[in-house]
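A quick aside before the break. I want you to see a complete sequence-to-structure record at least once, exactly as it would be stored in a machine-readable document. Don't worry about memorizing anything.
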Amino acid sequence: MSKIIGFYGGKFLPMHKGHLYCIDVAAQKCDLVIVIMFINGDEELKVLETHSDKFLMVKSRIKQLERVCSLYPNVEYHVIDVLKLKLPDGTEDWDAETPLVRQYVPHMDYVFSSEPSYGEYFKRAYPEATHVIVDAERKTYPITGTMIRAMKIMKDKEQWMV
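That is the input. The structure line, written in tokens, reads:
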């Protein structure tokens, strides 16, 4: 019997409880989950122009991801630098990222996200995988990275981060 493989990717800018929840759902559904952090993307570089919080830096985010993934015996992580993968308008080229993801996840049964809008891309990039949308309405953890970055008080941020 073959293993059930799941994939979950993100910027984790920062890693928060909603991300942890998605990893937890994936880990329960799959024999192996590959989590990939994409660094140096368009949004990240724009965020870092205006935010200097230590927890947003790549090294800190990798440590956060490493700590979260270590909670699960069936979850591993990788980091992919997308700095040079840009469309002519300067935004990220997800289609150029796909072969890099495939280096770590040549086959997947499921791709996890909390974004229904990613569905068309996932169908094209990972046609064998079922898109599992986890808590799109953010009811379990009503938080996003954008919301955390907008918080002014570190104590408020820390309650949502992992």
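Two observations worth writing down. The domain at 5-158 is CATH 3.40.50.620 (Rossmann fold). The helical segments are 17-29, 42-50, 58-69, 94-104, 119-125, 145-150, 154-158. We'll return to this after the break.
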